[in-house]
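My main concern about presentation is that the manuscript never shows what a single data entry looks like. Each protein is reduced to its one-letter sequence and a matching series of backbone shape codes. For the editor and my fellow referees, an illustration may be useful. For illustration, here is how one protein appears when written out as sequence plus structure tokens:
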Amino acid sequence: MAANNTPTLIPVLTYYADVTRLDEVGRGPFGHRVIGNVTGGKFDGPRLGGTVVGAGADWLLLGDDGYGRIDVRVTFRTNDGAHIFVQYYGLIEITSDVRAILAGQHGETPFGGQYFFTHPRLETGDAQYSWVNHTFFVGQGRLLTGPRVEYQIFKLDNPA
């Protein structure tokens, strides 16, 4: 009988980002571009907790296929003052509920309510958090009124 070599997902943190302004770039050669300005947020987990600080944005590209390609950059400041650069790409299914929230209507989508996954890359020079520099993360997202984007972030690990 073969050993189970399936990777394990280990919860690392939950994270939300507040998007206070959507800047419409419009339709270009690759789709409809919208820039969501990230102006705040928080993250919390067993080994990481703090706030979103500084400049940040989501460069969302809405395709004709009903999906959006996200490209996000934000900075985390941990509760003890360390800074972590966070960049993630992902794919979100643009359902009618997602469209309504992006248009300013109230509502929320549940985790798993649409296809919405990311692969965050975290980077820091702080020795206490250096483990994030060599960890592969995946995330599942959902959208809330605001708009606010919320993620569950997991690290991918080898089976025990």
About this structure: The longest strand covers residues 8-28. The chain has one domain: 8-157. The longest helix spans residues 96-102.
